[in-house]
Write a structure and sequence with these properties.
Largest sheet: 3 strands, antiparallel
Strand content: 5-15%
CATH superfamily: Winged helix-like DNA-binding domain superfamily/Winged helix DNA-binding domain
Number of helices: 7
Oligomer: single chain
Number of strands: 3
Shape: elongated
Order of helices and strands: HHHEHHEEHH
Radius of gyration: 19 Å
Structural class: mainly alpha
Distance between the termini: 43 Å
CATH class: Mainly Alpha
Strand order of the largest sheet: 1-3-2
């Protein structure tokens, strides 16, 4: 039975460690942004809107790899908070685009602060160089997983 892999082999894998740490990080981030009246998915939509100029709900759904109905629901909630607005596209009156409002930019900045606080908690045992390297490696791994 020496060829049977056990707990030590599982704990040595990237996927297990990322999954465990990711669940912990997600829970901590969710707890912090809940204080703002939103969920992590709202923060993701705010970030996507900030990264691009105005975008249609369909374009956002495609870019984020989620169902358009999720974008509509998140946008509805963010619109109620005054964080986004829907505007008719002057080039195509059938199309509505989402844009961040000043309140949305404020909320996004608070989300960034929440993420930075969780980062600090999770990496407090690392040196500055290790934190920088970890962030770079995680970004590289993430980019490699995106469709080309």
């Amino acid at each position: 039975m020496s060829d049977v892999k056990g707990a030590a082999a599982l704990r040595a894998t990237v996927v297990f460690n990322l999954g465990t740490l990711g669940a912990l990080a997600s829970d901590r981030f969710a707890g912090r942004v809940e204080r703002l009246g939103i969920k992590p998915k709202h923060a993701g939509l705010l970030a996507a809107l900030d990264a691009e100029s105005a975008a249609s709900q369909q374009e956002l759904a495609t870019r984020l790899g989620v169902a358009p109905s999720l974008i509509v629901a998140l946008a509805d909630q963010l619109q109620e908070l005054g964080a986004v607005e829907r505007v008719r596209d002057p080039g195509d009156r059938r199309r509505q685009v989402l844009t961040l409002t000043p309140e949305g930019r404020y909320l996004l900045a608070r989300c960034a602060e929440a993420a930075e606080a969780v980062d600090a908690e999770l990496t407090n045992g690392l040196t500055a160089a290790q934190r920088t390297a970890l962030a770079r490696h995680l970004r590289t791994l993430g980019e490699q997983q995106l469709p080309h």
